[in-house]
Amino acid sequence: VSMITRHRSMASRRFLPWVSLTASLVVVFSLFGPIRNLGAQGKRSVNNGVYTEAQAKRGEQIFNGVGRCYECHLRNLQGDAQRKGKPLAGPDFLSDWTDKSVDDLFYKVQYTMPTDIRGSGTLPVEQVADLVAYLLQMNGYPAGFQEFGTDRSQLKMIKFEEPKQTSRAPRPSSSRGSPSSEEGTLPMLPE
């Protein structure tokens, strides 16, 4: 009996390091899949519906109301050159923001707008998020089922890309000269 026990004990000692090494490798390599995909899971695109219709609607109300964004960017979002208001919709806007993050736009709105006497950074961050949602909507990016918040680390993960469909983007106003009126015109949206 002692010879059998002794034989098993020696075999156990000989294979124990290999069993431990194999088990450790299985655990380590099983973690590589989830670890490798963490970065990809966090990155999103504005084409993935990162705001809601309600959020964009609130943004529109801020744009045309308390934010008074229309004074420089016009109600059609095409910008007023006399007031140095850049277009906020259409090809110029898209070329400015493609390959950047939503956080870049959020930061720009939060810390540099409005440029008038009220001073930049006067809008609460929730209103800035709503304004950004409105701009996404007006540039043809689809709405989703969850609002994006104000966590800048999360907004950095949402990247601008060319819109997959641009049916909501306003078209530049007719060639009656550069739009310089405060009012502008509202874009025609499909029903």
The backbone outline, from C-alpha atoms, is elongated
Backbone structural class: mainly alpha
Q: What is the rounded distance between the termini?
A: 89 Å
Helix content: 40-55%
Number of helices: 7
Overall pLDDT level: 77
- SSE pattern, N- to C-terminal: HEHHHHHHE
Radius of gyration: 27 Å
Unreliable residue stretches: 33-40, 166-191
In order across it, which strands form the biggest sheet? 1-2
Number of E strands: 2
Largest sheet properties: 2 strands, parallel
DSSP strand content? under 5%
List the helices and strands and how they pair.
Layout lengths: L1 H41 L1 E2 L7 H12 L5 H4 L17 H7 L4 H11 L12 H14 L13 H4 L2 E2 L32
Parallel strand pairs: 1-2
Question: How would you explain this protein's 3D organization?
Answer:
- The protein has 191 residues and is mainly alpha-helical.
- It has seven helices and two strands; from the N terminus they run H-E-H-H-H-H-H-H-E.
- Strands 1-2 form a two-stranded parallel ribbon.
- Helix 2 crosses helix 6 (125-138) and helix 5 (102-112) packs across helix 6 (125-138).
Characteristics:
191 residues, mainly alpha, two-stranded parallel sheet, 7 helices
Brief rundown of the structure:
The chain has 191 residues and is mostly helical. The protein contains seven helices and two strands; from the N terminus they run αβααααααβ.
